[in-house]
Amino acid sequence: MIKLLHVEDDADIREIAEMALSLSGEYDVVQCETGEIALAYVENYTPDVILLDMMMPGMTGRQTLEKMREKPEFADVPAIFMTARAQHAEIDELLAIGAADVISKPFDPIALGDQIKQAMEKARLTQAA
User: Fold this and answer.
1) Where 4-aspartylphosphate occurs, residue numbers (predicted)?
2) What's the pLDDT score for residue 27?
3) What is the DSSP secondary structure assignment for residue 9, as one 8-state letter?
């Protein structure tokens, strides 16, 4: 099972993502509605991959990832951002700070699991190089 931490403030998106990923049988999904809650949760949990909403109240997805990356055990955990504002400049910026991928909203629930696995593989190959 792939341990996935999903940080998303929109309850509907959390529900759709959780249903799509759980139905595949490949993901153990933990969800948090804010960056602050996610940071508290990861004190005792290290996921295989992090799926972050970009724009959330309080901490943004980027700020949440930056805080997580301060912990050595999170240095190599692939992070994927989900955003409705998928402009080329923003995507390039997120990739430059170490995002494995950026998924545009609205996303395809059927393809989500495969997109995450592809991003994890891309991150693994990048780390090995």
Assistant:
1) 53
2) 97
3) S
**Could you report the per-residue pLDDT of 7-21, keeping only the tens digit for each?**
999 999 999 999 999
Composition of the chain by helix, strand, coil, percent to 5? 50, 20, 30
Q: Which amino acid would we find at residue 117?
A: K
Query: What's 84's domain CATH number?
Result: 3.40.50.2300
pLDDT digits (tens, 9 = 90+) for 81-109: 998 876 788 888 888 888 999 999 999 99
Tally the domains of the chain. 1
What's the token pair of residue 36? 């602050």
Would the CA dihedral through 34, 40, 44, 50 be positive or negative? positive
129 pLDDT more than 70:
no
| Joined tokens for residue 31 | 């969800």
User: What's the rounded Cα separation, in Å, for the pair 13 and 9?
Assistant: 8
Give residue 73's domain range: 2-128
DSSP for 72-126 reads GGGTT--EEEEES---HHHHHHHHHTT-SEEEESSP-HHHHHHHHHHHHHHHHHH
